[in-house]
Amino acid sequence: MSTEKIFEVKNLEKTYSISKGLFSAPTLINAVNDISFDVYKGETYSIVGESGCGKSTTAKLLLNIEQPSSGQIFFKGKDISSFNDEEWKEYRKKVQIIFQDPYSSLNPRWTVGKIIAEPLELNTSLSKKEIVTEVYEIMKRVGLEKDWYDRYPHQFSGGQRQRIGIARALVLKPEVIVCDEPVSALDVSIQAQVLNLLLDLQEEFSLTYVFISHDLSVVEHISDRIMVMYFGDVVELSSVDELFSNPKADYTKRLLGAIPTI
Amino acid sequence: MLLSVNNLKTQFFSEKGVNTAVDSISFNLEEGKTLCIVGESGSGKSMTSLSIMGLVEEPGKVTAGEIVFEGKDLLKKSDDEMRKIRGKDIAMIFQEPMTSLNPSYTVGYQIDEVLQLHQKELNKTERKEKVIELFELVGIPMARDKYNEYPFKLSGGQRQRVMIAMSMACEPKLLIADEPTTALDVTIQAQVLELMNDLKRKKGTSILFITHDLAVVAQMADEVIVMYRGHVVEQASVKELFENPKHPYTKALLNSIPTPGKVKRKSRLDTVDENVNYLDFPKEIR
């Protein structure tokens, strides 16, 4: 792990207003409540917590799918809200996402080749031929066979689909991949394969992962540092060793106590 | 012996041929015990439970074997007789509490319906009191107010509690739970598992628990069967299975989960080899 900061998040807040009806005032919900953290280059930074704790909202804010109500996100030292068009384009290449559900996140009417090629078509000036070469190369790297280029997502198993999602995220040679519960929809044996692949790719391309999960045994296996969220707040933030050997916050203790163990 | 499944075979018939989802499996479940069926997608674990409930739908069919429940073969019973057993003597909890409740009836009414069907001696007020009692038993807060709520108003954990309350309504002798906590958060999962163990202790209910999560198995089971491609590849007591797994598939499955303390952090995990047909190894039934 280096000391170079990829993300610096300062006092980030996201509030949703929920309208209760025509004549009553809307209720404000703090999905993310004044959180600050740093992510270093090459590390796996995990965000854990239960449904509704704000972990996915935090991911969306990092990816700029949602905009913060207040606070700042710095990417390599620069506030992303001050980006110009050029910088945004660059940012979208450098920060990618792998989604949870490989069944609903791939377009069922596109071939595998088209799904993986699309980011290249949109973000680079490569020729069609060069794109095909790149796609073949990345397919090979994530363990998809060449002949599968013209197949459709429904012809694949869950684990293979997740590989397609990984290939698509990887094809632009990003620096950061936000992994939103990437293995929770998979069987344990397939989960192991995908985790192994993510670990290999991280070493090979010096990737930084922001890893979102509710599965603490997976998190313990792959993380360097962990942030525990509860109802929009960060309740604990520490190294993986520290968190599992000496949890401080009551909620973390409760969470660790609730995991069934073998 | 409460339940004894012998050489059960469930097959699906299509134009492409016959697919055997459950291939001659046998196991026993004693009163007041929990038997876990563990396996991956497509191993036949859910189809086993649906076969016991008599809920296998076309083009699937139970083609051989027997399912002896309290000394009688369920496969020989008529649809009418099965309907009287389902919900009363054998109840089932499904995986998704979101989709297995009817969204257009109140949760109270949906449990009341079970009592109307199976406990005809109770009148309307008695039934309502019983439902509220059940809600309290499974730990639904403000049980009386919740009676008139619709499912969408409840959280996932509360909905699963309603499902458990429904399955417990007639104090079944056998409770079949098919991945009952897979859709829930860990803290809620812990509560639901504790609740099921509590009911087992208090009422002596036998539980057939289906899951892919080995850690949950370790917490719930007395006896475990491991299924792979429709077959039982290993059967053992929970202690033996985890301390001394014998079948290569069971070992591969256990090694593929990152177990803190056992596996070095960030090391590559062992995987179940897709090129190996684990059925080639002898079955380990203990």
Biggest beta sheet attributes of chain B: 7 strands, mixed
The string of secondary-structure elements of chain A, in order, is EEEHEEHEHHHEHEHEEHH
CATH domain topology of the largest domain in chain B: Rossmann fold
**Helix proportion of residues of chain B, in percent?**
25-40%
Structural class of chain A: alpha/beta
**CATH evolutionary superfamily of chain A:** P-loop containing nucleotide triphosphate hydrolases
Strand content of chain B: 25-35%
Biggest sheet: strand arrangement of chain A: 6-7-8-3-9-10
Q: Provide the CATH architecture of the largest domain in chain B.
A: 3-Layer(aba) Sandwich
Tell me how many strands of chain A there are. 10
Radius of gyration of chain B: 20 Å
Helix content of chain A: 25-40%
Shape of chain A: globular
CATH homolog superfamily of the largest domain in chain B: P-loop containing nucleotide triphosphate hydrolases
Name the CATH class of the largest domain in chain B: Alpha Beta
Number of discrete domains of chain A? 1
Biggest interface goes to:
A-B, 31 and 34 residues
Features:
heterodimer; A: 262 residues; alpha/beta; Rossmann fold; six-stranded mixed β-sheet; globular; B: 286 residues; 2 domains; seven-stranded mixed β-sheet; 10 helices
Notes on the protein architecture:
The complex is a heterodimer of chains A (262) and B (286). Chain A has 262 residues and is of the alpha/beta class. Chain A has a single domain, classed as Rossmann fold, CATH 3.40.50.300. In chain A, 37% of the residues lie in helices and 26% in strands. Chain A has a six-stranded mixed beta sheet with strand order 6-7-8-3-9-10, with helices on both faces. Chain A has a four-stranded antiparallel beta sheet with strand order 2-1-4-5, covered by helices on one side. In chain A, strand 4 and strand 5 form a beta hairpin. In chain A, 41% of the residues are buried. With 286 residues, chain B is an alpha/beta fold. Chain B folds into two domains: 203 residues, P-loop containing nucleotide triphosphate hydrolases (Rossmann fold, 3-Layer(aba) Sandwich), CATH 3.40.50.300; 74 residues, no CATH class. Chain B contains ten helices and eleven strands. In chain B, the strands form two sheets. Chain B has a seven-stranded mixed beta sheet with strand order 6-7-8-3-9-10-11, sandwiched between helices. In chain B, strands 2-1-4-5 form a four-stranded antiparallel beta sheet. In chain B, strand 7, helix 7 and strand 8 form a beta-alpha-beta unit. Chain B is globular, with a radius of gyration of 20 Å. In chain B, 42% of the residues are buried. The model of chain B has no long low-confidence stretch (mean pLDDT 91). The interface between A and B is medium-sized, with 31 and 34 residues.
